[in-house]
Amino acid sequence: MSATYAPATQPTMYFIGVSTGRSSIMKVFPRWAEFLGIPEAQLKGIDFPMNADPAAYRAAVEFIKSDPLSNGALVTTHKLDLFSACRDLFDEIDPHAQRLAETSSLSKSGEKLVAHAKDPITAGLALDGFLPLNHWQKTGAEAFLIGAGGSSVATSWHLMCSPNNQGNRPSRILVTNRRGPRLEEMRHLHAGFGSEIPVEYLEIDLPEDNDTVLARLKPGSLVVNATGLGKDAPGSPLSARGVFPEDGIAWEFNYRGDLVFLRQAQAQKESRHLQIEDGWTYFIYGWTRVIAEVFHLEIPVSGKRFNQLCELAAAAGKPSEAVRCGHGS
User: Are residues 145 and 225 in the same domain?
Assistant: First the structure.
């Protein structure tokens, strides 16, 4: 066990990210734990820089695996890199994690450490919650995913393969990223999906390159900031001159930070007739799915009890910039 980590003295879940101390979950978790009947549980953050040394990921995972009261973790930002560095440490890997080569959460089943990829589920719940009914079928619109990290890959799986959306899929998916190898990894994963939706993979250098892709999109298209810019690092993947598609949908994965992408969309809301979504509901779904797995709880994704969780989260830690919670579910 790494000397860096002190053994847990009570049931503990870890949050592996970049700036975990600034997340609303640090205020929300104690209220949720009380509501869910696990008041003794605690949440601790573990921060790594983006693209950290694989040895650092392994030390954290080895500690969680060996420490009796460390129940598991939620992983953000590092989903692909942590999975790659620690794959041999996992005793079980769920089908989504196998398929996407990422992990967004770790839990324990007896003495076994289990890697899960929850983003295809949580991103899908959030996306289906705000997309108009049969949106793709009615509009023929496209999806533009800016960034090729784990959340983007998971969202692409939902758009391309979710059994709930057969016959209602984007006419095309475009993905941009500054790192070519990440795009190639995504291309390789997509090849295994068996989807017939055409996908363009574009290596870009500047925000203006994303503006050029933006200008090509059909009316009604979905534009997603899946880069971490606006939260893990300042700024936006678009320049100030980027123009959103007419009647488009702008989805900012983040709910905290400088949220430049979100403000760029809001500035064009009336002129381009945009629907704008931030990451607050994604945050709710993401955390509740992982907490359910880590502490072996039944937590619903809709209805009265889910709405109570949304209300507790909003009261405890919803930033003023976050625009919604729960989509009325």
Answer: yes
